[in-house]
Amino acid sequence: MNARPKKSFGQHFLHDRRYIERIVDVIAPRSEDFVVEIGPGEGALTLPLLAAAGKLTAIELDTDLIPGLQARAAGKGELHIVHADVLKVDFTAMAHSHGVQRLRVAGNLPYYISSPILFHCVEHAAAIQDMHFMLQKEVVDRMAAEPGSKVYGRLSVMLQLACRVEPLFNVPPEAFRPPPKVESSVVRLLPLASHELHDARPQDVYAVVKAAFGQRRKTLANALKQLLDSDAIRRADVDPKARAETLSPTDFVRLAKVYASRE
């Protein structure tokens, strides 16, 4: 029996076998992998991932879905269900407690809290090998946007400073029950190696990026005036007359370092 999707949880259950198989193919789980699925729902991705890897940890907030998920997975592998809000799950501690260096994370994310989940995962990027998510296409476009794009913004910068973002393919509304009102996309996130990461303080980068895009129509001199004056912006080798949407992620890192030096 199919579960009734709950609007409060933003549930849209994937049911089209063609897209399920494509997602599993791009993840390509192996028996040695520690796979974590966020929001397994009715198990459309859970069961084939479990079959491929032999074991799977699933994080599910909706208690009504757990018994059905356990029943469907019976005899198909080792399924461990964590009943929790994913934003409160410590992925780093999870990896350490299971004696693995890095997790592989996947999921059809609830669209209404996709950005907080992405940022939460990025906080634990050192403990994650890769991430494969189904998201609203508009969000994936923002994640992968380059400087100068109309959709380039805070999400683009913060994710690209931590991961390589690879949009993979789109999924139409009719592949879900109920169909969402938007098109979806599958995206791969590959956390950067330690030598590729910037060395600015995360809180400084966040403060500068948030202020810059909080008033994206204004020049940096105006948008950042509470943090940096024009001379300080120039010391970061950035034009104070430029707008946030034209800066590369590394430009924001330099601004963050100047900001830190002025504190």
UniProtKB/TrEMBL annotation:
Residues 19-193 form the Ribosomal RNA adenine methylase transferase N-terminal domain. It is found in: Cytoplasm. One of its GO terms (molecular function) is 16S rRNA (adenine(1518)-N(6)/adenine(1519)-N(6))-dimethyltransferase activity. Gene3D superfamilies: Ribosomal RNA adenine dimethylase-like, domain 2 (1.10.8.100), Vaccinia Virus protein VP39 (3.40.50.150). InterPro entries: KsgA/Erm, rRNA_Ade_diMease-like_C, rRNA_Ade_Mease_Trfase_CS, rRNA_Ade_methylase_Trfase_N, rRNA_adenine_dimethylase, SAM-dependent_MTases_sf. PANTHER family: DIMETHYLADENOSINE TRANSFERASE (PTHR11727), DIMETHYLADENOSINE TRANSFERASE-RELATED (PTHR11727:SF7). Specifically dimethylates two adjacent adenosines (A1518 and A1519) in the loop of a conserved hairpin near the 3'-end of 16S rRNA in the 30S particle. May play a critical role in biogenesis of 30S subunits. This is Ribosomal RNA small subunit methyltransferase A. It comes from Rhodanobacter ginsengisoli. The gene is rsmA.
